[in-house]
């Protein structure tokens, strides 16, 4: 039977790659519902090709424009409620959660509660609300399958293994575009330089997170929740080639790794076809041509965001939510050209240090912490502009 997909963020980098996987396997997957932000052109093309039953965009005007431009009738919705309607569409069995940022949490949680299997790209969902999300998934008996390349690698390495025999996991990090830059040069980094990821083609927000290494910090927290590991069992290793996507070390010292060319279609398809594998058209990895792989320790002095994420994750409560909310505001401002690159770590650091942590927060308390973090980040940015 075909898997029936709802896709949040269908016009983004992960969304487009997801639909390419569907295109390669029309006998395996069917598109039921799509949600996007403002990219009318791309959504029109997707609706014409995949004929979803429901589409949503961030505004009514945008989705009405799509409706007018497509050849067959399609039901439309919009805004935050539209995201949840798409995520919980009764005909869909599987949600690809690929919005960017904290707006992914609510619809992903709703899909879990509606019993959908989740293919999770939106790491912010687990950073903000990991405890609640994992608890709800357990209650609903729902699988959360990682799409993030490192977590997919770990998931693949853990297949048929006993989780209690894991000593630690090692998340590989490219080091981003500033990997070899001295601190003074990083301080003057431009938007274009931050978006110039050495190995992966991704959306703007995650590209900036990779440049600050906050992405790896968010991934440490994501791994904590997905694999139930303590923070001292999660290590980060700089691996400039991004060929080894991550590793698991077992109690006997054996290391398993997943390798491949940097292509998100591989982890996306693994999450969609799980537990089977399907053929995929992708560039094969030529190890002879590659010749060598390189590794080094991350430099936490040049990239303090990684340490901040470890600390926030370990402290728990509402701190990871604050880390995430302040980071989103600071990255958005940097992308708009309104502040220098190091302001990201300053704003996040300031918000974390001022926050009064709430232990075991409920959903309302998480939303309040997120609101507070954003407000605090905006104040910090205003003070320094
Ligand atoms: N890209 C990658 O290779 C990887 C991404 N991830 C994670 O996956 C998630 C998505 O990343 P990525 O695909 O790169 O991001 P993109 O910026 O490329 O795409 C984001 C998607 O979210 C949509 N969106 C934005 N704002 C809204 C809104 N207000 N309402 C509805 N939809 C909205 C965009 O719509 P529109 O374009 O129409 O405005 C787009 O479809 C992130 O959490 C990221 O960390 C994880 C691993 C790898
Ligand atoms: C493709 C993917 O999963 C990204 O999260 C990627 O890992 C970012 O690269 P960095 O290793 O530079 O953060
Ligand atoms: Mn990743």
TrEMBL record:
Residues 144-227 form the 1-deoxy-D-xylulose 5-phosphate reductoisomerase C-terminal domain. InterPro entries: DXP_reductoisomerase (IPR003821), DXP_reductoisomerase_C (IPR013644), DXP_reductoisomerase_N (IPR013512), DXPR_C (IPR026877), DXPR_C_sf (IPR036169), NAD(P)-bd_dom_sf (IPR036291). 1-deoxy-D-xylulose 5-phosphate binds at residues 123, 149-150, 174, 197, 210, 215-216, 219. NADPH binds at residues 11-14, 37, 39, 122, 124, 203. Its EC number is 1.1.1.267. It comes from the Bacteria. Mn(2+) binds at residues 148, 150, 219. PANTHER family: 1-DEOXY-D-XYLULOSE 5-PHOSPHATE REDUCTOISOMERASE, 1-DEOXY-D-XYLULOSE 5-PHOSPHATE REDUCTOISOMERASE, CHLOROPLASTIC. Belongs to the DXR family. This is 1-deoxy-D-xylulose 5-phosphate reductoisomerase. The gene is dxr.
């Amino acid at each position: 039977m075909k898997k029936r997909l709802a896709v949040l963020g269908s016009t983004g980098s992960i969304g487009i790659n997801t639909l390419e996987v569907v295109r390669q396997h029309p006998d395996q997957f069917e598109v039921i519902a799509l949600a996007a932000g403002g990219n009318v052109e791309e959504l029109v093309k997707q609706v014409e090709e995949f004929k979803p039953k429901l589409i949503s965009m961030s505004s009514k005007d945008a989705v009405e424009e799509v409706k007018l431009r497509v050849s067959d009738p399609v039901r439309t919705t919009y805004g935050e409620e539209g995201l949840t309607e798409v995520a919980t569409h009764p005909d869909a069995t599987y949600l690809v959660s690929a919005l960017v940022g904290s707006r992914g949490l609510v619809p992903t949680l709703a899909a879990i509660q509606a019993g959908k299997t989740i293919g999770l790209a939106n790491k912010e969902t687990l950073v903000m609300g990991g405890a609640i999300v994992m608890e709800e998934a357990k209650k609903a008996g729902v699988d959360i399958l990682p799409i993030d390349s490192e977590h997919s690698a770990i998931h693949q390495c853990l297949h048929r293994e006993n989780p209690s025999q894991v000593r630690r996991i090692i998340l590989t990090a490219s080091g981003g575009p500033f990997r070899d830059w001295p601190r003074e040069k990083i301080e003057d980094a431009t938007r274009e330089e931050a978006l110039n990821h050495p190995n992966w083609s991704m959306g703007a927000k995650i590209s900036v997170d990779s440049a600050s290494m906050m992405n790896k910090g968010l991934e440490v927290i994501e791994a904590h929740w997905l694999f139930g590991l303590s923070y001292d069992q999660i290590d980060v290793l700089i691996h400039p080639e991004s060929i080894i996507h991550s590793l698991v070390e077992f109690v006997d010292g054996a290391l398993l790794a997943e390798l491949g060319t940097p292509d998100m279609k591989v982890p996306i398809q693994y999450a969609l076809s799980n537990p089977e594998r399907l053929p995929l058209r992708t560039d094969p990895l030529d190890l002879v041509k590659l010749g060598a792989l390189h590794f080094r320790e991350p430099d936490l002095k040049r990239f303090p965001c990684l340490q901040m994420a470890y600390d926030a994750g370990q402290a728990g409560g509402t701190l990871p939510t604050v880390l995430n909310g302040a980071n989103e505001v600071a990255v958005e401002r940097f992308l708009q050209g309104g502040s220098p690159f190091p302001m990201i770590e300053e704003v996040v650091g300031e918000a974390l240090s001022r926050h009064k942590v709430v232990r075991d927060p409920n959903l309302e308390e998480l939303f309040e912490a997120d609101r507070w973090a954003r407000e605090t980040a905006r104040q910090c940015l205003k003070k320094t502009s």
